[in-house]
Amino acid sequence: MSARCTALLLLLTGACVDTKGRFDDYNDRFEDYKKRLEAEARDAAAGFDGGACESPELGELQGRYLFAFAAALDKTRPILMSLTLTPIKGSKTDLTAVFTPLSVEGLKPTGESVETTMRIDDTSFAMEKVHLLVPGDTNPLQPGLDAEADVTLSGSICADANGKTEFVCGDGVGLITDPLEVPLDGSEFGALRVEEGDPWPKPVSTCAMGRERT
After folding, report:
1. Which terminal residue of the chain has fewer beta carbons within 10 Å of its beta carbon, N or C?
2. Bridge partners for 96 per DSSP
3. Looking at the predicted structure, is the pLDDT value of residue 2 above 90?
4. Is the pLDDT of residue 207 over 70?
5. What residues have CB less than 8 Å from 31, skipping those under 6 apart?
6. How far apart are CA 107 and CA 170, in angstroms?
7. Cβ proximity of 203 and 190 under 8 Å
8. Cβ atoms of 164 and 192 closer than 8 Å
9. CB-based burial of residue 40 (10 Å sphere; 0-12 exposed, 13-18 middle, 19+ buried)?
10. In a 10 Å sphere around its CB, with 0-12 CB exposed, 13-18 middle and 19+ buried, how is residue 198 labelled?
11. How many Å apart are CA 191 and CA 166, to the nearest integer?
12. Are 193 and 164 in contact (CB under 8 A)?
């Protein structure tokens, strides 16, 4: 039994949760989620200009976004982060994605940033096994409590009539890994482009909310 098991986990389950086994199980269902979400996410993203969904150019994706993660535990209080996308030199499919937590009060950058790779496949994208860090002052679900999670994010990404992408959305699967191990199956997210110097807008945390904006 792992030394990291807490007394609470022992009381609830009688043993340590197999974190890797559970995450692998959720990740195995990644393709099913991706297929189900593609149509919904494409409609939401393309809806910002009312046109068809076109595959975006990597250079047009570069910029700052307000990322809102609506955890399945409570989708009414999304975790907010600044997301910066930068094309990887020489790649036709990959961008560097940097997540920086934003405080609940004032939406100020705080804590450590996390860097991962966003891979584009036509009008779909994926970020696999992203290790998100949520400091206590950025945690709307349990204020003051630091948390960590391993998630896989997938959805659709569309260029508007001007070739730019203003909004992306999709689904998240994985686990909260600290302080307790909690499944995140059924979580959603949205990311809304915000120009440098502009104030943060009202977050859009689901594909459905994206459609309502149009």
Report:
1. N
2. 86, 117
3. no
4. yes
5. none
6. 22
7. yes
8. no
9. buried
10. exposed
11. 8
12. yes
Tally of CA atoms within 13 A in the half-sphere of 142 that contains its CB: 12
Q: Indicate the length of the chain as a whole number.
A: 214
Greater model confidence, 211 or 28: 211
Q: And the tokens for 163?
A: 């070739």
Highest CATH level, class, for 18-213: mainly beta
Q: Where along the chain do its domains lie?
A: 18-213
Check if the beta carbon of residue 100 is closer than 8 Å to that of residue 118.
no
Euclidean distance between CA atoms 86 and 97, whole angstroms:
7
Q: Which helix (H) or strand (E) holds 207?
A: helix 207-213
Beta pairing partners, 66: 82, 192
Give the tokens for residue 138.
Answer: 């950025």
Arithmetic mean of pLDDT, 9-25: 43
Q: What are the tens digits of pLDDT across the range 54-86?
A: 777 888 899 999 999 999 989 999 999 999 999
Contact call for residues 65 and 191 (beta carbons, < 8 A):
yes
Answer yes or no: are the C-beta atoms of 131 and 68 closer than 8 Å. Answer: no
> Token match 């807008």: residue?
201
Would you call the peptide bond into 101 cis, given omega within 30 degrees of 0 as the criterion?
no
CA 98 to CA 128: how far, in whole Å? 13
